[in-house]
Amino acid sequence: MRLLYSLAWSLALPFVILRLWLRGKQEPGYRQHIAERLGWYPLSRAQTKAQATIWVHAVSAGETRAAEPIVRALLKAYPEHRILLTHMTPTGRSTGQSLFANVADRVTQAFLPYDINWMIRRFLRHFSPTICILIETEVWPNLIAQCNAANIPVTLVNARLSERSLRKAQRLSALMLPAAQAIDYVAAQSGPDAERLLALGVRNLCITGNMKFDVSPPPLMAERGAKLRAYFGERPVFICASTREGEEPLILEAFTQLKLPRALLIITPRHPQRFDQVAAMLDQLQLRFVRRSTLDLDQDELPIPADTQVFLGDSMGEMYMYYAASDLAFVGGSLVSLGGHNLIEAFAMRRPVLTGPHTFNFSEITEQAIAAHCAQRASDAHDVMQRAQILLDDVATRNQMGAQAHAFFLQHQGATDRTMQAIAPFISSQHQD
């Protein structure tokens, strides 16, 4: 089965590269470092024989932010090692550059090659890592097989697996079961995730919790958020964060129909290639809006007219700032059947959360948050806006939910330490040639 999988990858490669180039029209980062995606790396990045490398793979921006606590813990625990941080998306790479700018001398970034055997072998020979640490959901059959052949331990940390993903993997059990069984150790986010991973074939596993709870909000983001909030004036501010395609029309229709009194709506699309699409949508609906990209927050005054209805957050790496500037948050990916996004960043900023009906990617955390009275589930976009109106008008309830949200955030910390203990036996102190 893996032979057929490899053949399919090889046949599809020209079309994959074409798609990469086409995506680069909207997001130029996809046209950069293409050679790395094929397993070719500059000689300047070659590993020195005297320094061992710990390899952490975080596919996109969300996984990169989730990896921050463990990358910093690894840098501290293994001062003689370098960290190789790989990605599959430009947003993941740029997020890593921002997060680890102060330790750039010890953190090397690169794109991971496609899951084709010869490309993976070239990658492993070039960087010669002593361990592979995959973040959250990344199970690539050829990557795992090539690491096994090179005697490189493979661990999957902050691991999660939804029911839907399990069903998909089980339909490809001849391919996915051997890959799951070949992972040396898995640190799962929750009990249900652990049960599903065991059903997939994982053998060695423990439950460590979600490392995203260990991410500390940057103080600068809180300061900039407070400054931005001051420019919005006294009216309530409602953020719809990490929205996905198909959600903005639903949100904007409900927002205009309900006419939230005095409220300013912040929308932050999940992917940067959609910023202009959402701006065009706001123009078409004749909504008065301001784009974040047009503002310089270092100015003493900002041109945000009092009649502005929508603030378009067309920037990356500023989500904490947007939450700090808001009174209440809706977290996207949950009005359409995409499984939702994590609520943790909002909780870290003491913001109560509304979510839609589709949260299967974060089912346990979401249900726990609802039970802890720091989140509410809405049935659709109109229900989101109705609940928002109630909470924006009820300052006492909203503040209480915000306090409970922050307590929930603090209660779930500690996953990074537990993960470090779990994977420590697999990290070699000696560089492997």
Task: Explain the overall architecture.
With 433 residues, this protein is an alpha/beta fold. Helices cover 46% and strands 15% of the residues. The longest helix has 25 residues, at 2-26. It is globular, with a radius of gyration of 22 Å. The model is unreliable at 429-433 (pLDDT under 50).
Computed CA radius of gyration, to the nearest angstrom: 22 Å
**Helix fraction bin:** 40-55%
What integer is the average pLDDT? Answer: 92
Lateral arrangement of strands in the main beta sheet:
3-2-1-4-5-6-7
Properties at a glance:
single chain, 433 residues, alpha/beta, seven-stranded parallel beta sheet, 18 helices, 14 strands, disordered C terminus
Can you summarize this structure?
The protein is α/β, with parallel strands linked by helices and 433 residues long.
Layout of helices and strands:
Elements: H1 2-26, H2 34-37, E1 53-57, H3 61-77, E2 82-87, H4 90-99, E3 107-111, H5 117-127, E4 131-135, H6 141-149, E5 154-159, H7 163-171, H8 173-181, E6 185-188, H9 191-200, E7 205-207, H10 219-232, E8 237-243, H11 247-258, E9 264-269, H12 275-284, E10 289-291, E11 310-312, H13 319-324, E12 328-331, H14 344-348, E13 353-355, H15 363-371, E14 375-377, H16 381-393, H17 395-411, H18 415-423
Parallel strand pairs: 1-2, 1-4, 2-3, 4-5, 5-6, 6-7, 8-9, 8-12, 9-11, 10-11, 12-13, 13-14
Helix pairs in contact: 3-4, 3-18, 5-6, 6-8, 7-9, 11-16
